[in-house]
Amino acid sequence: MDLTEKYTIRDLYRRLEQKSLDKLEGERLDLGGFVKSNRSMGQVGFLSLNDGSCYTPVQVVYDASNKEIDALRLGCSIKVEGTLHLTPEAKQPFEIKAEKVELIGGVSEDFPLQKKKASFEYLRTIPQWRMKTNTFNAVFRVRSTLAYYIHEYFHSHGFYWIHTPILTANDCEGEGQTFQVYADVKKPSEYFNKDNVHLTVSGQLHVEPFALTYGKVYTFGPTFRAEKSNTTRHAAEFWMIEPEFAFAHLEDDCNLMEDFLKYVVRKTWEDCKDDIAFFQERIDKNLESRLREFIDKPFQRVTYTQALEKLRKAKENGHHFEVEDFSFGLDFGSEHEKYLTEVVYKGPIFLTDYPKEIKAFYMKQNDDGKTVAAVDLLVPMIGELCGGSERECDYDKLLARMNELHMNIPAYQWYLDLRKNGSIPHSGFGLGFERLVMLVTGMQNIRDTLPYPRCYKDMLF
Ligand code: 4AD
Ligand code: MG
Fold this sequence. Notes:
31% helix; binds magnesium ion; binds 4-amino-1,4-dioxobutan-2-aminium adenosine-5'-monophosphate; 8-stranded mixed beta sheet; 13 helices
């Protein structure tokens, strides 16, 4: 029988926080993980052990005359048996006095992670190792925690999670930037008996019928876009969260977005305090103050037309933009979004009521005949974090717009028919999950928020 109790390092820090770690003083523990560092001074050696459960490693103290332990290098996997001792006077609040350290997996001479700091560019070339570095260890923990609280938020607010398909015959955003799927390139259409099957760009169309039945639903899954944009904010494969809810108008959509985002950011920060403190210290000196404002301050609500006016004024006052034709219909670029969020409004803004020409076919047409009930949430540093709208729920208006856009009506008839039978006003939005991870960690490249990034001209294995 194994008398040692299994703890993770996180369990120990949790107990410390809850002031119950003293109950384990002198207890025998059994920990497993990888070596972060190893040094010895005279008779005593110090191993820093990380088991991935939390940011902060644990210090293992050993007898330095044991040359086998002394020789353990960064990256070695080990098992440690020892006793726990509180060390309130020392730099770390407790340590493990090793009785036995067992090498489980050694490292070869060419192990690519070394003690000296490697650039993010280099680490992108070794995605199978980079999660062992402090930064990426923290990124993927925060990513997982965010996903947990996203599900928790929706679950506790009565939203059901619907698994919409990845293979689809519809193009939700109508941009044609899709990855085609072939079972056999010689006979592309044979397998599904469809002319055009591709990876989904959004689960929205498929989730709408569920919203009209269950009232409140959401999707959370991978989405794919064949945009040829090599930027720090676009991935070819990314995850999207898309709530959709019935009896909801544009304002309800904004309210949900704000409440939901503030909740998941706050809860994740509380849960990953050490990780966020690390990002604040090493990645972005303004991170914590930005997150605090994000949580505490109401997001400002601005119409597209008002924003356009602000940009015109800025130009009159001598600010130079690359694109300066501020006539109605301009699709804002990142320079405009940046100016609005960082200079004019100094915080997140809901930009609503866009010209219909620059938005997707399914958005509710406003009475002015020019704009649609769309919303983009723009945030400093990131740009567009979410995009959503109230949906057009009038059959004739939707059909007219689809005809204007020369869409293939038969392919979307199933979707149109939702407006014929038990139609309800409804709204929803899509949140780009990696952009949320960027917001919470301060990481500046979407490639550094994805475990295995797939971007334009950029896929390793
Ligand atoms: O604004 P988008 O295109 O909206 C939709 O797809 C709607 N169907 C959502 C809905 O109403 N249910 O995409 C939503 C969000 C964007 O705001 C952005 O955060 C993210 O998805 N996104 C990307 N993230 C990473 N890489 C890309 N290539 C992205 N394209 C969009
Ligand atoms: Mg958008």
